[in-house]
């Protein structure tokens, strides 16, 4: 559940369209027939998207606790209507008992089955459920619901090697960020650490973002690997606003964590950076990129030394309001998506691309309209404007083209329901391969 923020729209004004690199095929994914491709309708929202090193696209989305999760898969060369509906990976006994806050990951190394293992994590009331596929999403093995967790919220999953994955989540009892690890392909997760020391004031006052693992750069610890957890919190113990962004950094595979503040984020964070979620990505050369929103604009920070020092951009977004950023850092640049409104009325998916040597140059375009009216980011506390939920995503395929999963009003703009959409970059500049 997100921290409570409502974006209140002002009187509508003239719309301004920002154009830039890239052309996209867009469509709404279907859930009518498992095993079939094509667009149609669905009632899922808040998707997660990743692309494997073999170019296989995987998208999960949720229909809410008790409603189950949905999954689509397909070749990165496909159009927006080319993905196959793979059913509900987190269903238990054919019933979608899970379905809250899904997240996905692909292993970067092939398993003994000869494929890149897929993970789909989903909240399941007081626990987290992880489903795993070893046949490119044709079937999923239902892993036992993770036992022994306290009441939890907003989990994230990231994979390393053929068989290892880390799972992070908000521990509702303490508000800290807990880390679990599996070394047997997701069959068993063991509590490993907390990202923030219990004695740190931020342990009980934070909003977490995503979890990522560096697949290409060796850590200084034998048998370890670099992992990064994003979160925002007050910059001081007496503060109330989440006015500073932080990165939890582990060099030993998640066993221990150091907190790295992004000091330059306080210059634009005074009104709060909890416009969900903060997002971190690691480039193939190990450079970190970190996106965040203060409700009005999107900002990006960069670190070349594992979070020890950071450089922040100015506003990257060009709209009146911009929220919910997600980015992917690649071998030749960065792709960034966010929800923005140019006229304080209609919200769009925006796609921004950065290929220069600094953070000042971004090429931006509208991809598709997704919502009209106010937007609430307060989770279950919202009484309206909840159609976009809290999260969407972007990844690049091995050729460097972008793939975006987003939430939209259904059946049309201004609708009271939500649906998952998919956009494939079909032209423009590819930015390189991801980590």
Automatic annotation (TrEMBL):
InterPro entries assigned: Sialidase_sf (IPR036278)
Q: What is this protein called?
A: Exo-alpha-sialidase
Lineage of producing organism: Bacteria, Bacillati, Actinomycetota, Actinomycetes, Pseudonocardiales
């Amino acid at each position: 559940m997100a921290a409570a923020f409502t974006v209140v729209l002002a009187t509508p004004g003239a719309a301004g369209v920002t154009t830039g690199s890239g052309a996209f095929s867009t469509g709404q994914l279907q859930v009518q027939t498992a095993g079939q491709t094509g667009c149609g309708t669905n009632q899922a929202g808040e998707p997660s998207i990743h692309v494997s090193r073999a170019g296989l696209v995987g998208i999960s989305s949720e229909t809410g606790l008790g409603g189950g999760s949905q999954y689509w898969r397909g070749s990165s060369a496909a159009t927006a209507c080319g993905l196959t509906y793979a059913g509900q990976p987190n269903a238990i006994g054919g019933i979608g008992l899970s379905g809250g806050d899904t997240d996905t990951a692909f292993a970067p190394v092939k398993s003994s089955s000869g494929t890149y293992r897929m993970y789909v994590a989903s909240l399941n009331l007081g626990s987290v459920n992880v489903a795993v596929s070893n046949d490119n999403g044709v079937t999923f093995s239902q892993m036992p619901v993770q036992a022994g967790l306290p009441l939890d919220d907003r989990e994230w999953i990231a994979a390393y090697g053929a068989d290892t994955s880390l799972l992070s989540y908000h521990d509702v009892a303490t508000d800290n960020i807990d880390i679990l690890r599996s070394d047997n392909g997701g069959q068993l997760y063991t509590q490993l650490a907390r990202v923030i020391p219990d004695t740190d004031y931020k342990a009980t006052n934070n909003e977490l973002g995503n979890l990522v693992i560096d697949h290409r750069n060796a850590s200084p610890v034998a048998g370890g690997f670099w992992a990064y957890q994003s979160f925002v919190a007050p910059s001081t113990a007496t503060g109330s606003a989440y006015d500073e962004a932080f990165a939890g950094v582990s060099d030993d595979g998640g066993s221990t964590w150091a907190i790295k503040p992004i000091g330059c984020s306080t210059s634009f964070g005074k009104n709060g950076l909890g416009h969900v979620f903060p997002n971190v990505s690691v480039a193939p050369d190990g450079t970190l990129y970190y996106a965040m929103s203060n409700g009005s604009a999107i900002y990006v920070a960069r670190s070349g030394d594992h979070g020890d020092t950071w450089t922040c951009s100015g506003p990257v977004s060009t709209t009146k309001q911009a929220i919910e950023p997600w980015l992917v850092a690649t071998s030749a640049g960065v792709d960034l998506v966010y929800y923005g409104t140019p006229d304080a009325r209609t919200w769009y998916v925006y796609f921004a691309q950065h290929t220069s040597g600094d953070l000042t140059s971004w090429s931006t375009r509208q991809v598709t309209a997704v919502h009209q009216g106010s937007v609430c980011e307060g989770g279950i506390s919202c009484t309206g404007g909840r159609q976009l939920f809290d999260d969407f995503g972007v990844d690049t395929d091995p050729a460097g083209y972008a793939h975006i999963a987003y939430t939209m009003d259904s059946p049309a703009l201004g609708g009271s329901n939500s649906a998952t959409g998919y956009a494939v970059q079909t032209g423009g500049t590819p930015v390189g391969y991801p980590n």
